[in-house]
Amino acid sequence: MALIYITKQGYPVNSIDFNSQNQTYVSVLTDDVNKQLVFIDEKTSNELYRIPDNAYYPVILEGSGSGSSYRCGNNNTASAYYDTVSGGCRNTLTCSQNYTTSRTIAGGSNNTIAIQRKGTIAGGCRNCISTSNGYQPTIAGGTNNKISSSSYSNYVSIGGGTNNTNSAEYHSTIIGGRYNLVCGNSSTASGYNNRLLTTSSYVSCVSGACNTISASYSSASGFCNTISSALNYSSVSGFKNVISSSAVSIIGSNSCSAYKGANVRGSNIVTNRNGATFVNNLSIKNLPNAAPVESGSLWYDGGDNTVKYVP
Fold it and tell me: Is 308 within the bounds of a domain?
């Protein structure tokens, strides 16, 4: 096992303990019986120093994979090509494919990457990247977060939080929060227990809790709102609203629309036709006091105190 970098209390070990000026003459072996690291002078084959395997010394050693390295003494593993575990404990880089390359775990504990190419876990605890294929998935931190897809995970990420799962194939992000699930591509989620499901793409669920989106090009915020599958280009904000048609907008609570292009502002409203706006109470301010020339306009006739419509 060859020495790559070794320090003791911030200084090179060899300059303090070995009286040597050239690290290339020092090898590091493991004494599995006594659970110690043994430093050998390659010129003389003499033992120079021993460090207990669990002692706190920032030592980076070669992994079993070609060009790989890991922080030793803390049960870290780097088993494929050009892998790096630079810190932490019980972090694992593993994959059965020989061409696995350039994955990194920077720190944390009990993190695992089992994807083929260029995955990164910056830190945190019990985070996992596991999929059959993919390119540059990233977990920045947090706890019990998972990136996993049955096919591939390209440029998907989790920023932090707890118990989030990103199963998209490409370009989706969970910013943070807890128990969020993203399955659709090019989507974004944060908050608590928001679900962007398999049929959804280009979805934004920026905040809130317990929202479910199964449509594309749609967004939700608030609490317990639902946008049903294959019904795209909708947005909802508020509390317990349901959209089951396309191009619908709801801001309010306990409202629902099954009509295309409906616009809802208010509470406990059920739409009954396409392309209409529904409100609980409508207040119109500063109407013109003469008939406009544009068709479809409203104006106020002071002569008989009525609101009139221009056909």
Answer: yes
pTM: 0.77
Sign of CA dihedral 139, 211, 179, 196: negative
Q: What is the pLDDT of residues 129-179, one digit of tens each?
A: 988 777 889 999 999 999 998 788 889 999 999 999 999 988 999 999 999
Quick check: helix, strand or coil at residue 121? strand
Report how many domains make up the chain. 2
What is the rounded CA–CA span in Å between residue 51 and residue 35?
A: 9
- For 15, the 3-state DSSP assignment is helix
CB distance 255 to 269 below 8 Å: yes
Helix (H, G, I), strand (E, B) or coil at 13: helix
Within this chain, do residues 237 and 301 fall inside the same structural domain, yes or no? no
Q: How far apart are CA 279 and CA 51, in angstroms?
A: 74
Domain that includes residue 260, residue range: 195-280
Let me know whether 274 and 228 are in one domain.
yes
Same domain for 291 and 228? no
Place of tokens 């105190």: 305
Q: Does 296 lie in the same domain as 265?
A: no
As a whole number, the mean pLDDT across the chain is: 83
> Has residue 206 got a pLDDT over 80?
no
Per DSSP, the residues of 30-41 read: EETTTTEEEEEE
Residue 43 domain-assigned (yes or no): no
Distance (Å, whole) CA 265 – CA 281? 9
Domain with residue 227: its CATH number is: 2.150.10.10
272 and 211 inside one domain: yes
Query: How far is the C-alpha of 148 from the C-alpha of 130, rounded, in Å?
Result: 5
> What is d(CA 75, CA 69) in angstroms, rounded to the nearest whole number?
13
